[in-house]
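Could someone model zinc ion with this protein?
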Amino acid sequence: MEKMRNKSIAERLAKTSYQNFNVAIYCPADVIKNITDFDDFDRRFKLVSNHVKIGRAYIECYRAMDWCEKEQILRVKEYFESKGIATSGGIMTCGDCTDGGWISLCYSKPEGRETLRKSVALNAEIFDEFIFDDFLFLNCRCEECVKQKGDRSWPQFRLDQKKEIAEEIIMKTAKEINPDVNVILKYPQWYEVFDEEGFDLKLEPELFDSIYTGTETRNPTYAQQHIPKYLSYFIMRYLESAAPGRNLGGWFDPYECTYSLTSYLEQCYLTLFAKPKEVTLFGLGVLVFDSEYRLFAPAVGELFAEVDEYLGKLGDPRGVAAYRPAYARGEDNIHNYLGMCGIPFEAYITYPEKEKVIFLCEGAADDADIVSRMKKSMLEGASMIVTSGFVRKLGDAFGEFVNVKYSSRKAIVNEYAVSKNSGVTVGGKYTGAEPVMIPQLDYCTNDIWELAAGYGTDNNFPIVLRCKYGEGSISIITIPDSLGDIYHYPVPVLNVIRSLFSKEIPVTIEGPAQVQLFAYQKSQANGNENDNDEINNSSNSIDHVIVRSDLPYAESFTLKLSDRVKTVKDIVKGIELPIVEGKITLQLAPCVNYVFELK
Ligand SMILES: [Zn+2]
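Reply:
Sure, complex below.
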């Protein structure tokens, strides 16, 4: 773990409201400025505090042109502290949003810069810590911004301007007033396009004292952000890799979750499965004063109690090394779609050169050194798994490994074959749930082998290709044009894909898509804390897994176990599961977490 930069961070980490994590509530400015009768507020707040052990309240001074004055902030602060709840500040940096959408403050104009400076100064005067709600993005395209952008691309202009305001306005103002203040940058959940709107995953974890992670998911089909559920876990781990030890927590809200209380709770489960230091509930207004959400706080309170019972028994999260460089683009949310197919990932923002199984999606091809890195890994024996999008973006350079090209031709497939002899022959006829449109990969038969294929007319198309390279291997997965259609690959094809990832994971799921697997290894935190890279991410030490089905009906799944697993115990129910020929069969109820100890 990286050494903490100031004592505020160390102090806040020392105290948690639950055994294994802290829980905070975020209090927006437009809500707290209207609290006049604190006795009445105290009665209403019991809807949360009777169910959730709140350890911290973030008290916001500014939100989209709304200010809460200093005296009122101090009154609210006093209220929470009288209840034994620690307090921190908060800022939500939007401007006038009455014209539709969220519009950031404009930092090309003096008014926007002054609003930012004033809100930072107010927080630093009152608190030893404050957080930026994830609206510290830049999406203004006013005449002045167009002028200042000049010949730069929008992402470059915004990254440059964000760095300037972070250094010259935020950190300078805050540290002049309160040198030990902990300034937290909360990142939104849309990491796939961070740089487009000025979020810099490489530089900002260094500029700010600490960071925070948005883990909000909605219904992926019906909501604007189209995010698979696995994101709530994956992004926590990804941002942890961007700021080791300084990703202070995960944050979610109940918006667009009234269709299913379970969808709200799933954000919290997955955030917790990533082993956060803190979970923040957004927010005071919606959870306390909005009758539509009355059931949410009591339900999430019960969830915290439930997970706290077993989270401490799980070690550090582990999974297949998934490399995504800071400014990567392409195949949005591919890790989360594959995560929903039962593949456990551990995210890396820097190339995981010590790992033996490495997954690269289209965005990884944005690393200019990727070919030499891959070559070294495979010569040392690594199994490399790449997507068709990675092949497309790398283009001719992929020929260093094998002559496979992403063609402009498509195929619609609904029947598939798999190979049982490493690609010498393919066979069987397995029907998918729906027809799927895939890109056709051109490849040279007898140089690389089909492990799974989709049938065409007098033809078939590779779904999984694999060949040796050096001491290692390279496998290519064909990703459907509509990424979610990967769920429609039939079970035998999904099982071939999962088996590519299973070399270092002692449990492989066999069954349909929309099932998640999380893996843990006994904590090594007590060892050499400064040597994170040396942690052994291997099957020899994975000793707990969680399995969770997101299918809307109960379904039978098989867990294929590696040879070293002799017993599987459900630690919630306290029962041992029978192993038959290296497998256990489970009937998974929808959205229930099955927590297993492996020995
Ligand atoms: Zn502007």
